[in-house]
Amino acid sequence: MTKNFKKQLFLKEYAQELLKIAKGDFESALELSQAKSGRPENIVFMAQQTVEKSIKAVLVHLQIAFPMVHDLGILIALLPDDKIPPEGFALTELNPFASIRRYEEGRLPLTTEEILVSLDAAKKIIQWATAALATTK
Fold first, then answer.
1. Residues 51, 94, 122, 73: is their CA dihedral positive or negative?
2. Closest CA to 25 of 8, 48, 7, 3
3. CA pair distance 58, 80, nearest whole angstrom
4. For the residues of 44-94, what is the DSSP string, one character each?
5. What predicted TM-score, i.e. pTM, was given to this entire model?
6. Quick one: pLDDT band at residue 13, thresholds 50, 70, 90?
7. pLDDT above 50 for 1
8. Which among 32, 81, 85 has a CA at the least distance from the CA of 57?
């Protein structure tokens, strides 16, 4: 069954605010990665949130309506071909961390490499979104 999500269009000015929030999420992910205790899933959740909000910031900047979903594939598919972010649809590997993995602990352990890859992807997407918002449509 395919869900039919209502798309929303935001004022273009909201793009900068959303990108600022994404940058804050990235800073949180970095801080969590240095913590001596806690759930490693939270690091990747914040990395996923960084990517999601960065993509949404670009969509807002381009004045493309989007559904209020966490699925990165749905959001990326709305972008014009010349605006696809680094890593492209491979970013969808972060999707489970916005949903089911937030409510599981240790069943599928995260490796240090997986955490570092998620942080690197988030950093690249912040840079991509920052550059995209610096250009006019």
1. negative
2. 48
3. 11
4. HHHHHHHHHHHHHHHHHHTT--EES---HHHHHHTS-GGGPPTTGGGGGGG
5. 0.90
6. very high
7. no
8. 85
Structure tokens at 97: 């961390």
Any idea which residue has 């599928």 for tokens?
108
Do 53 and 85 contact (CB within 8 A), yes or no?
no
Q: Which of 12, 15, 8 is nearest to 130 (CA)?
A: 15
CA 71/CA 97 separation, integer angstroms:
10
DSSP element (H, E) containing 8? strand 7-8
The tokens of 52 are what? 């999601």
Alpha-carbon distance 10 to 133, whole Å? 15
